[in-house]
Amino acid sequence: MPSGEFDFIRWIRGQQLPSEMVLLPAGDDLAVLRWPDDDLLLVGTDQVLDGVHFDSAVHSPREIGAKAMNRNLSDCAAMACLPAAAVASVALPRGTGIEYARELYTGMRIAGERFGCALVGGDTGSWSGPLSVTVAILGRAAGIAPVKRSGARPGDSIFVTGPLGGAMRGRHLAFVPRVTEARRLAATGLVTAMIDISDGLARDLGHICRESGVGAIIDAGAVPIHADAVAASVDGRSAFDHAAGDGEDYELLFTASRGDFEGCFRIGKVIADGGLFVRSEGRLAPLEPRGWEHSL
Q: How far is CA 212 from CA 42, 80, 135, 159, 193, in A?
């Protein structure tokens, strides 16, 4: 831990904002939350690692902190829940200064505050390895049933909330989680399955299909292509390949039984037979589940 650990903890306590839900924020061994008796508790965790999800030699600590929190907020969006509170565990490279730690915390706090999600505690340590930030988040249903990956049915349409591809050119650090959009979509009662696109359109669609026991056909011409995907295609891969496989877009991918959704793009349909396919120029071909996958 950098010098001034207890000064840092005191500084964090001074950043806490009052909240109706948070009875006791950071400072004691545990935070204390007031949880509605009639609400569901949703829990998740995600981490970001230097050299994998960001480059600490290039990206600022505030950007890194924001991404760490926003990835978890995007998981809340994937199930249409409201973020409520979060805790963070940070492993800092030995010798990191307290100002860097403050900026990292500030990035997390500001990202959470956008959606009323208080950062109520965590832990900080130092080691000889690279920077690692893990955030655990608590969400609540707040009157809208959580949307799972397992509800897609043959005949459903497939939608995305925005253009895809090339996110590693910078958008992966500066995205806004689709929490508001997810709540609006789920409130219609028409959304049958949903996921956020972190691993890539093809791979994340595969998650929905596997959990739902269905297949899918994507219309290549209907997939919204981000300008970053076009720029990235100088590597010899098509813009569609980047849109289908790059990941880190953090748009919502969802299926719906009927209807159109303002601001969303209908890109395909769910089929009964297993497998992922793409239709391009009238031809149907397998859609390889390209995208991000950690090696174990």
A: 21, 18, 28, 16, 8
For residue 56, pLDDT beyond 60: yes
pLDDT over threshold 60, residue 216? yes
Burial of 165 (0-12, 13-18, 19+ CB in 10 A): buried
Q: 64 and 25 in one domain?
A: yes
Beta strands in the chain (DSSP E): 22-24, 32-33, 41-49, 82-93, 118-127, 132-140, 157-160, 191-196, 215-219, 252-256, 265-271, 275-280, 283-286
Question: pLDDT grade, residue 265 (50/70/90)?
Answer: very high
Question: DSSP code of 120?
Answer: E
Measure the CA–CA gap between 92 and 109, rounded to whole angstroms. 18
> In 3D, which of 146, 147, 74, 67 has the Cα closest to residue 115?
74
Query: Do 165 and 282 share a domain, yes or no?
Result: yes
Average pLDDT (17-28) is: 72
Give a yes or no: residue 296 inside a domain. Answer: no
Hunting for tokens 């939608």 — which residue is that?
A: 159
pTM for the model stands at 0.91
- Asked if 111 contacts 164 with a C-beta cutoff of 8 angstroms, the reply is no
- 12 token code pair: 């964090």
Supply φ then ψ for residue 211, to 5 degrees.
Answer: -70, -30
Full domain range(s) for residue 104: 5-140
% of the chain exceeding 90 in pLDDT: 81
Residue 171 has pLDDT above 70, yes or no: yes
